[in-house]
TrEMBL record:
CDD domains noted in UniProt: TPP_TK
Membrane-spanning parts: 21-39
Keywords, ordered alphabetically: Membrane, Transmembrane, Transmembrane helix
Pfam annotation, one family: Transketolase_N
Keyword Iron: no
Name of the protein this chain belongs to: Transketolase
Organism of origin: Fodinisporobacter ferrooxydans
Lineage of source species: Bacteria, Bacillati, Bacillota, Bacilli, Bacillales
InterPro entries according to UniProt: THDP-binding (IPR029061), Transketolase_N (IPR005474)
All residue ranges annotated as the Transketolase N-terminal domain in the record: 4-242
Amino acid sequence: MLTNDIRKSILHMMHYSKSSHIGACFSIVEILYVLYFKILNIDPATPFMTERDKFILSKGHASAALYATLAERGFFSKELLNKYYINSGVLPGHLDKSSIPGIEVSTGSLGHGLPIGLGMAIANRLNSNKGNIFVLLGDGECNEGSVWEAIMLAAHLKLNNLTAIVDYNGLQGFGETKDVLNQENLLERWRIFGWESFFVDGHNIDDLTTILKLQVQKPKVVIAKTIKGKGISFMENKLEWHYKSPNDLQFQLALKELEG
Ligand SMILES: Cc1ncc(C[n+]2csc(CCOP(=O)(O)OP(=O)(O)O)c2C)c(N)n1
């Protein structure tokens, strides 16, 4: 299963580089898999083709998940994943557009991906470019005011070439999203602001594919219910795995689970 291979790559990268954000990566593996293998009109051989779809990982701290997916999709060799987040590496911890083909936007400072995606969607409309824009945000990231400005303008302009996906895992860096800034009824909030809104199991490949393929007349949001740390029993729904990196024993245990 490719999603399992992506998780294994992420685990190796995090362990080797001793870096953070493994939980944030594991919660979006199925979303990235569906986008890159079933939805996006892209070609790894011509990564800059004009009418391509563009994906923005707005929660740029989960860069390892995107690198692992891009490698599986053929954008670059899997060997390059060893150059993640190390001195003289090639793949930085937060996304840098100039690092490697396939990274559309530099992100890491939360709250910028959707406003940038909005601008790209407007530009595509003005240029009669058929490319669609997809933006993946964290649910904690939806605390940022800039996100809501973009939500309002996209709805006003009825940008049906723009899709947002919210990684709704209920956890952020230092607590539960509902305790940090409660955004009850997140789906209803987007709907009231004028978006075509859907709620799906963010680990269900068929459901994600069906909803992301739906053609609608407005901007679309998919609130994807996920589990932070998904796939490794001792990491699932555990806040500490936002920042912790697996030690040697934890690495072996996690690998065993993925291989089992
Ligand atoms: C503007 C900004 N403030 C703070 C941070 C530090 N930070 C990195 S990840 C994170 C938590 C984000 O939570 P969420 O959006 O729910 O993403 P998830 O943890 O699910 O990946 C924070 C606060 C940041 N990257 N950017």
